[in-house]
User: Fold these one by one.
Assistant:
Number 1:
Amino acid sequence: MSEQKTGTPLLKVQDIHVYYGAIHAIKGISLEVHENEIVTLIGANGAGKSTTLNTIAGLLRPRQGTVELNGAPIQGLGASRTVGMGLSLCPEGRRIFQQMTVRENLEMGAYTRSAAEIPDSLAEMFERFPRLKEREKQIAGTLSGGEQQMLAMARALMSRPRLLMLDEPSMGLAPILVEQIFSIITELHASGVTVLLVEQNAQMALQVADRAYVMETGLITMQGSASDLLHNDAVRRAYLGS
């Protein structure tokens, strides 16, 4: 499904080690994401997938190793700086601002942008997510789970990222909404958004991705084209229930 990429990757993670106190959570992993790819990171709960995204985003600082965005080192800069450099994280659990309206949540996603740029971005998000336009003035905490996930994704897109990182976008959603979220991810990719996806639903993730990495207990144990891993017997037994 995907050829080996050459050239400078948009994101390059090299030998990062991350600790929570004495716990060695990430044990020297390396990965790359190239422009216009969907790359997925799959693995069991506790494998370190969310920790990896949080470290890339600047929410955690690696004790060792480097993270580069478009060739520039970003490890340790902090999340507010990395957003301004073109990286946006849609976090696990959505983390929307529950007491704010849909529109206010979206505006919060554009805090690195100039005031003049925000109306066009809002219009773009309302066109991409018509349900949010219908609920523009509604308090975000009253939205359904699927609507909250759409809002979290739209808020992350308001900064116009070069790389969008999605952490468990289908978590807790009914199957029909999972299909809808993955359809949106595919549409985003078709419009030129590069995506790094962490997802429990390995089957769906491998179906939409170009390449994939498998994580186990803080290590990357397998990598390759998503189509190859989708048909790999060990991956199928461990993550696809077959």
Note: The mean pLDDT is 89.
Number 2:
Amino acid sequence: MSTPRLFSGMQPSADSLHFGNYAGALLQWIEMQNTHDAVFCVVDLHAITVPQDPKTLAAQTRKTAAQYIACGIDPEKSTLFVQSHVPAHSELAWILNTVTSFGEASRMTQFKDKSHKQGSDNATVGLFTYPILQAADILLYDATVVPVGEDQRQHIELTRNLAERFNQRFGETFVVPEVKIMDAAAKIYDLQNPEAKMSKSGDSPQGILWLLDEPSLVTKKIKSAVTDTDTEIRFDSERKPGVSNLLSLASLATGKTLKALEEEFQGAGYGNLKSVVAEAVVELLAPIRTRTQDLLGDPAELDRMLAKGAEKAERMAGATLSAVHDAVGLLPRA
């Protein structure tokens, strides 16, 4: 029986990944690379659906790949590459555009939200077709499972619909993937607004824990985290979101259960909780920062690893793209 394949990726849209990325995606990727034929991508083509500084984008792409590895993605075990290094992504996206209706693309809620913020006249066609490129990313690799957050469920449903439609119209070509919604228990919230998930677009920079933050800054952010007027330390995400978020951080950083942490901090104050959480998170992030810096200090070696991953990805993607060309009747080059 063949090992099931998974595909997932993140945009290189900041100098550092944040703790929400680590808890909500990377930890689960690391675990799944042991049970799946894992394909992980830095999706730089998705990043340019909004304006980017070219030099910054290139630097952030390297930094994102370095952090994947530093957190535990093994390039020898998984296929790790940069999206734009495999041109088949763009080519398949165009072909899938031709079997996607304008209506179903218009119904994507993320486009509605983002175009509303930017103003519809400023939203790019690339932003509109973003989910179709995402479908190409997945379908190129015959992925059977796609681990994503709940906010991406609609995009994966579109991917499934496009695969099924293509197969019905042109014959069995694509594997229809299953969506795997990431464990909600791993979600980390904004330190200043603990009712909103931690995000690079958060309202306050003090609410975001970046993986590459200096230890002193990590400590400062955690000690400034919003709690509540009640002094009891217990996990209750509805009534005590701030304290619950700190307990989640402590659980991820120490490996202790929430129940064990509640018992440990029974009768303690918020100041003590924050100090312990800050110390644990700093200790967790220290080797990630060091490994990332080491990788970025030798860009030639990092690029070699990414090139090796791209070669492997290109072989898989090329086989799928060739089958797609044959299916739709594109004339082979002599």
Note: The mean pLDDT is 92.
Number 3:
Amino acid sequence: MQIPVKFEFQSNQTFEGFFAGNNTEVITALQALTHSGQEQQIFIWGEPGCGKSHLLQACCRQSQSLGKLPFYLAFPKNDLPTLAVLDGLEDMELVCLDDLQNIAENRNWQQGLFNFYNCHRQNNHQLLLAADCPPKYLPFELLDLKTRMAWGLTLKIQSLRGDQLIAAFAHKANFLGIEIPEPVGVFLLNHYAQDLPALWLLLEKIDHATLAAQRKLTIPFLKKIIADEL
């Protein structure tokens, strides 16, 4: 048995740090996946930036806290990992596979995952999958793999809109120890990007800037941070 290389958990990607919005039922199902083990497989999907990777990492962290062996594996679009990472992966109690749509044009990876899938399931271990579309719409050449990905629960992550974006931003900022006054939130909603990935990048800069300056976040200070970024 060869256990795959370890991956690093994202320290701020926990269930507590995730703003649920309209996804309470999805989060409940994911928490139950690691706690009770009643579901053997869950497939989550949603548009880019909706929080799929965060939730996969949160499941890994929760699983590890319960004394289990989790593993997270992402498939970057232009930099797929080597197939050797699958060696021993069937022995991990929870495997989370992210951005599965990015192996659509790689027959070798599809075959490799198919072989892993059968061994992992025979070991009665759990699988958490994520992509930007439901299993039936994945453009896989290997149809048997696509069929297996639809065996368990399939859940959609609802994207946040409008005021929910600022609520999510304030929630994560509070998790990091940063207070977001209401006027600052309104300013962000009216003058900055309307998607979470851009807001998370900005939050990192706010975190560094407020710590360095030892001052609270105000609209003038936020304008300066944004101007420095641009």
Note: The first strand starts at residue 41 and ends at 45.
Number 4:
Amino acid sequence: MSQNIIAIEAENLIKVYLRGSEKIPAVNDVTLRINKGDFISIIGPSGSGKTTLVNLLGCLDNPTSGVLYLSGRLIFNKGKRLPERELTKIRREIYGYVFQNFYLIPTLTVMENVMLPLTFYRKPGTENEAVKLLQLLGMEHRKDHLPGQISGGEMQRVAIARAMVNRPEVLLADEPTGNLDTKRSSEIVQVLKELNSNIDLTIIMVTHNQELARCAGRMFEMKDGQIFQIDRKS
């Protein structure tokens, strides 16, 4: 972990959804600081606000109120936000996203799926980066296979490679092992740990699995839209 370099800072984040005349507080006054190189996990029951919070931190959704900084840059401030064009650039360049569903294109090869984010935006050397990522994730030998020809654990490795191909600063993993068995789940979390350790990647992982959550450096629990840090060794 890079000491004293703040990657994401949230102050009093609130997200309220409207259901008719009823107000549903999904995230309720969350203040959180994540340093560069942190690997944090967030657990909690369904409906506790985990995914909503990660979507706010990842600029995929807008808070109702509160303040959000990304590497010291003000993103949201009390209902105001950056223009959508700038937010799109941030999502593309700063964040990588991994979800429970792999979202691989079934008619594209492993290599083509990894390269997909580069279709409209390429940094120098990113083609080589894709090959290196597949090597790092043990998937180079599968690069010409279609998703239907590989296992679920391998598909999630491909999804991670795709999320990493633009060299993001922060990886958001929302239930990345939700569709996997225990063995494959442990393998994917080990991959995340290695990425965090080897390249100082900041990772925010949402999971229902407390055992996997304890693999992170810092562990949080959400209840009723609020967040609490807990001892991962307890």
Note: The first strand starts at residue 6 and ends at 19.
